[in-house]
């Protein structure tokens, strides 16, 4: 079911656009200024950006640089900064505040944009918890801050921002409420609870559609969420994602890339998916390296693909280029640790992610599946069973897609030790995570790091506060595990395995 209005032919007309066009065509500059200043947010969404820019440009400089019109001009001319007007009302001050973070976000720097809005409530929150008294400014900034939080990876805060719009919707701007529902659905469809995503999409579909220029973008984001909610085995999944116009996706393109990667994976076309992601990466969308999802999504997905095909060295390089604080980076980094046999590091990473994934069902399932795998490979079978029971007890039970995430090595244990664990459906093959070759101890990893730094045995002994003979013993064990006969071969093999 696609998220469309109940009556697709019924569109709510935004009359402000007609009024502004009439007075602009008549050359009545004062009336243009009065209409735009009275409802700057409505004018922003009613008039397409190119048309609003043309109307503002036609005004005398002294009129378009005063009051809310100056803020509209700043938002229209990202990349051409102008001095913000001083001592204007709170509505204009809010527009000016938003301009800076809006420009940063459009440049693919959501973390930097978020720092610009360290206290957005000061500029946007009204004294009323029930009625919007800002002409839609509060709703606009809640949606925009929610998008910034989505792109930065702060999903709980993003959902809170969209919920505030739902609690206090601007009456003249129904598309803001629809947008808040759709963005919430997109978060849940990709990372959270699919049932909540479905509810949000249904709520969005029940709202009136307008003739605002933002509606196609909302439609594109709703379509991404709809695709993610389709059941396993749905035909033409990849074609449906590829049919979404990238121009309508806009700055939420990282979520499109995530959905595209998911669609290819569900279709069993992993190699094609990696090629498509690499193609989009080469297209160079706006992004600042290591800044949130825009600066990390390609590296994260390609690193995961590299790990699954047994190439940890490539994964290590890619992960070094991703935002280290982003939850998605940390999850794939834990998978990397598991793949190369650094199980203690994997457990620590996964434990540190618990607060982040709690409340986001799909993320938490993925974290728990990986934690169970790491515990099993470390030999702690009882702890692994405990995590498997936690997975089995999730609300509503595990879906088929969620069960498929459990590696093949854990299915016999789950069936034996977890009461009620279902059998795999006929023909379904669980994933098979690469096994580490010759797992190194913590001390062996330390010795290897020193060797990679070019230290002699004597220097390694001094660095690690051990004897030279102990260093020799660790090196012999290292060489054996790496299948090497000398230091140079050991370093080459360690690099190939992604250990250094």
Would you give an account of this structure?
By secondary structure, this protein is mainly alpha-helical. It has 31 helices and two strands. It has helices at residues 15-25, 29-38, 40-46, 49-58, 61-64, 68-76, 90-106, 110-116, 120-124, 137-152, 155-167, 174-190, 194-205, 215-228, 237-242, 246-249, 253-266, 270-282, 297-308, 312-319, 327-340, 343-352, 354-357, 361-378, 381-392, 400-403, 411-417, 442-452, 457-464, 468-482, 487-496; strands at 11-12, 209-210. A two-stranded parallel sheet has the order 1-2. Helix 17 runs antiparallel to helix 18 (270-282) and helix 19 runs parallel beside helix 21. The longest helix has 18 residues, at 361-378. It is elongated, with a radius of gyration of 27 Å. The relative contact order is 0.06. Residues 1-6, 78-88 and 120-131 have low confidence and may be disordered.
Summary of the model, kept short:
The protein contains 31 helices and 2 strands.
Topology:
Blueprint: E1 11-12, H1 15-25, H2 29-38, H3 40-46, H4 49-58, H5 61-64, H6 68-76, H7 90-106, H8 110-116, H9 120-124, H10 137-152, H11 155-167, H12 174-190, H13 194-205, E2 209-210, H14 215-228, H15 237-242, H16 246-249, H17 253-266, H18 270-282, H19 297-308, H20 312-319, H21 327-340, H22 343-352, H23 354-357, H24 361-378, H25 381-392, H26 400-403, H27 411-417, H28 442-452, H29 457-464, H30 468-482, H31 487-496
Parallel strand pairs: 1-2
Helix pairs in contact: 1-2, 6-7, 7-8, 7-10, 8-10, 10-11, 10-12, 11-12, 12-13, 12-14, 14-17, 17-18, 18-19, 19-20, 19-21, 20-21, 21-22, 21-24, 22-24, 24-25, 28-29, 28-30, 29-30, 30-31
């Amino acid at each position: 079911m696609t998220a469309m209005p109940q009556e697709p032919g019924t569109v709510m007309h935004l009359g402000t656009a007609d009024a502004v066009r009439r007075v602009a065509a008549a050359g009545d500059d004062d009336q243009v200024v009065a209409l735009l200043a009275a409802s700057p947010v409505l004018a922003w969404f009613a008039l397409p950006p190119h048309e609003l820019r043309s109307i503002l440009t036609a005004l005398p400089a002294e009129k378009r640089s005063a009051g809310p019109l100056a803020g509209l001009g700043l938002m229209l001319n990202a990349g051409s900064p102008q001095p913000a007007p001083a001592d204007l009302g709170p509505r204009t001050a809010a527009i000016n505040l938003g301009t800076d973070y809006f420009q940063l976000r459009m440049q693919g720097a959501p973390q930097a944009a978020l720092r610009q809005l360290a206290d957005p409530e000061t500029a946007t929150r009204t004294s009323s918890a029930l009625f919007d008294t800002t002409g839609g400014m509060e709703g606009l900034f809640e949606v925009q801050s929610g998008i910034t939080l989505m792109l930065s990876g702060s999903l709980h805060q993003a959902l809170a921002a969209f919920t505030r719009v739902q609690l206090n919707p601007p009456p003249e701007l129904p598309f803001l409420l629809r947008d808040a529902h759709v963005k919430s659905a997109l978060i849940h469809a990709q990372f959270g609870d699919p049932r909540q995503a479905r509810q949000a999409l249904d709520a969005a579909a029940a709202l009136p559609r307008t003739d605002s220029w933002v509606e196609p973008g909302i439609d594109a984001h709703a379509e991404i969420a709809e695709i993610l909610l389709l059941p396993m085995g749905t035909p033409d999944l990849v074609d449906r994602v590829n049919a979404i116009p990238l121009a309508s996706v806009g700055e939420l393109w990282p979520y499109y890339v995530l959905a595209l990667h998911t669609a290819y994976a569900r279709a069993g076309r992993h190699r094609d998916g990696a090629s498509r992601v690499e193609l989009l990466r080469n297209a160079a969308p706006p992004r600042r390296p290591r800044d949130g999802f825009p600066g990390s999504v390609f590296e994260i997905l390609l690193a995961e693909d590299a790990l699954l095909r047994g190439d940890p060295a490539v994964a290590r390089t890619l992960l070094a280029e991703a935002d280290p604080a982003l939850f998605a980076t940390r999850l794939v980094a834990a998978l990397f640790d598991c793949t190369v046999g650094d199980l203690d590091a994997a457990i620590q990473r996964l434990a540190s992610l618990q607060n982040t994934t709690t409340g986001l069902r799909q993320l938490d399932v993925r974290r728990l599946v990986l934690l169970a795998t790491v515990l099993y490979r470390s030999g702690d079978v009882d702890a692994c069973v405990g995590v498997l029971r936690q997975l089995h007890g999730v609300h509503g039970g595990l879906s088929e897609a969620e069960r498929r995430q459990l590696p093949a090595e854990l299915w016999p244990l789950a069936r034996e030790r977890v009461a009620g664990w279902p059998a795999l459906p006929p023909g379904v093959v669980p994933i098979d995570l690469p096994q580490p070759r010759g797992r190194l101890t913590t001390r062996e990893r330390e010795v290897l790091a020193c060797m990679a730094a070019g230290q002699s045995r004597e220097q390694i002994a001094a660095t690690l506060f051990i004897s030279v003979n102990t260093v020799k013993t660790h090196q012999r064990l290292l060489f054996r595990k790496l299948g090497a006969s000398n230091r140079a071969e050991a370093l080459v093999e360690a690099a190939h395995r992604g250990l250094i």
